[in-house]
Amino acid sequence: MKTASKGRRRPREQVFEGLAVSPGVGIGPAFVRESGDLHVPEYQVPAGRVRREKKRFADATAKAVRQVGKLKAKSLGIHGLAAEELGYLLDAHLQMLKSRRLIGGIEARIEKERRNAEAAVMSEISALAQEFVAMEDDYLSARADDVREVGHRILRNLTDTAYRGFGGVEKGSIVIAEEISPADTALMDPEQIAGFACVMGGAEGHTAIMARSLGLPAVLGVAGLIPAIRSGDMLIVDGSSGLVILNPTGKRLAAYQKRLKAMAREARSLARLRDIPAETRDGQRILMEVNLELPREAAQATVVGAEGVGLLRTEFFYMNRDDLPDEEEQYTELAKIVKAMKGRPVTVRTLDVGGEKLASSLGDHLGEAQNPALGLRAIRLSLKEPKLLRTQLAAMLRAAAHGPLRILLPMISTPGEIVAVRKELEKTARRLRRRGLEVAEPLPPLGVMIEVPGAALAADSLAQNCDFFAIGTNDLTMYTLAIDRGEEQVAYLYNPLHPAVLRLIQFSVEAALRARIPVSVCGEMAGDPRFTALLLGLGVRELSMTVKAVPRVKSRILGLDMQAAARRAQMIMDQVDSTRIATLVDDFNETVA
Ligand code: PEP
Ligand code: MG
Fold first, then answer.
1. Mutational test site, ligand 1, from 204, 452, 484, 522, max ligand atoms within 8 Å of CB
2. Which residue from 23, 152, 344, 468 could staple onto 518, CB 3.0 to 4.6 Å apart?
3. CATH 3.50.30.10-classified regions of the chain
4. Which residue minimizes the CA distance to atom 3 of ligand 1?
5. Fold for domain 14-33+165-249?
6. Of the listed ranges 18-32, 138-152, 213-227, the one predicted with least confidence
7. DSSP 347-400
């Protein structure tokens, strides 16, 4: 253990609260991710591109101001000295981000030296930091760190680089950071990292989903982590209760170690359900599928006895790279997954970026948007950039020759979008056949995500144009309640039990049943045993969830009486108040557990 002499750190136990986003417990040394290892490109900018370069810099700085402002708002939630200290620090950063000395210096380097924005920031920051270091005054020379930190923040925004790589992290560490993106999470190896916690992030954002997929205990939206924790400090991350415990007492540590053992026992006993069909006590068979974030999860899908992949998010193809994946690469990866599933259907979703999910390789295609969640994202991007869509469809059609594959379209809001994709699909199939390649015959089923309230309300007309529905309760909740799913400040309002959300789910399920097309739920609700009885009661017979959630949801199904669940769902749908609904859900789960 380090001593307390280094200023802010405290050897006594401290408990931080945040959002419990990925269950489980991690115990280990902290790894506080610094803003190092940035890849900074350096090049000369032609005269005609200077304005554009200055605009890039201005956008990155404006983003930095927003980020620091957000951190400041969060710091108000902490108590005592730490809050004061953090407040001063962030004020200093805000001042720097607005100072003419820094901003003007960087702009001058872009303009006069014709350097790209990243290189200009780099040079100006090191020159300024040198000046501070050289000052006699201790306080001022310590500001050099702040200058570097501010510079790195702008650089990260410019390069759109989240902090990369966790290769050098000591085995069993807990990663602590200001923000962790879904792409960062994809780089974490659960064998290497015991869990993570960060200041930003909401419970249903993709970082949270990725953490659950990987089985990494995680707590997001925790104020005050960064100034309090140093790399090497002993930590517990409790992803089930949303706690981060710094320097736990011996008693606390022992209690958590006991909990870890109990969790391992529970996992072993649930693993026995693997080959038992998911059937309610009164004989209703439920299809259990999995959502995959990364290809490496396919092997685990069969281990938990999944009956198919209900949602393969293809965003992984575009993460942590600067170029775009070609048809061959996508085909090879998809074919591997289809083969690994050994005849069980694989539902592959076309690219769903934009909004909170950004892929650096798509930077030029996405542009800047005022309201990214409402802008050019998901199917809208695919239809605007047909080359992206055609490449994906071609890879899917070729992979479909190796086993059952279904194509799923995200963020559909009108039948016209489905018709446009179907045309592309047919054209792509013809092109592939001309190339002499094997294509599945008939063409794979084409389904749509129901995740926009308008799509749910127009579900009857969508059902006439597609082959299946997958209800995305994550976005459906977000758009219905106007709550950003990845934003910790409004996370308390995010509630899939809101009557408006439930009515949209019910309406979509009934529309699918009327049109006799399959309907599944693949949002996070499907993987939470708390909601299983309600979803089944509303008529859902197919659930798709993260691999880790399968055993517990299956166990819930095995204990359920379908008739009773349907009666309870009916009672719930007569309610107008979410609190009353939550009580009815929880009472039913407790009494008919
Ligand atoms: C959803 O919105 O519920 C969904 C499953 O899609 P994603 O989480 O990838 O947006
Ligand atoms: Mg979605």
1. 522
2. 468
3. 14-33+165-249
4. 472
5. Glucose Oxidase; domain 1 (3.50.30)
6. 138-152
7. EEEPP--BTTB--GGGHHHH---SSGGGSS-HHHHHHHSHHHHHHHHHHHHHHG
The reply to whether ligand 1 has any atom less than 6 angstroms from the CB of 523 is yes
CATH fold of 47-159: Enzyme I; Chain A, domain 2 (1.10.274)
Whether residue 78 has pLDDT greater than 70:
no
C-alpha of 212 from chain center = 9
- In DSSP terms, 19 is beta-bridged to 220
Q: Which ligand is nearest to the CA of 212?
A: 1
Among 185, 212, 313, 319, residue to substitute to test ligand 1 (most atoms within 8 Å of Cβ): 313
Mode of pairing for the β-strands spanning 243-246 and 234-238: antiparallel
pTM comes to 0.78
- The atom number, within ligand 1, closest to the CA of 475 reads 2
Fold annotation for 277-473+518-592: TIM Barrel (3.20.20)
Q: What positions carry a catalytic annotation?
A: 206, 522
- pLDDT-based confidence at 332, cuts 50/70/90? very high
Are the CB atoms for 546 and 291 separated by under 8 Å? yes
pLDDT tens-digit map of 514-561: 999 999 999 999 999 999 999 999 999 999 999 999 999 999 999 999
Residues in the chain: 593
Specify which residues 448 forms β-bridges with.
409, 469
CA 495, 496, 502, 504 dihedral sign is positive
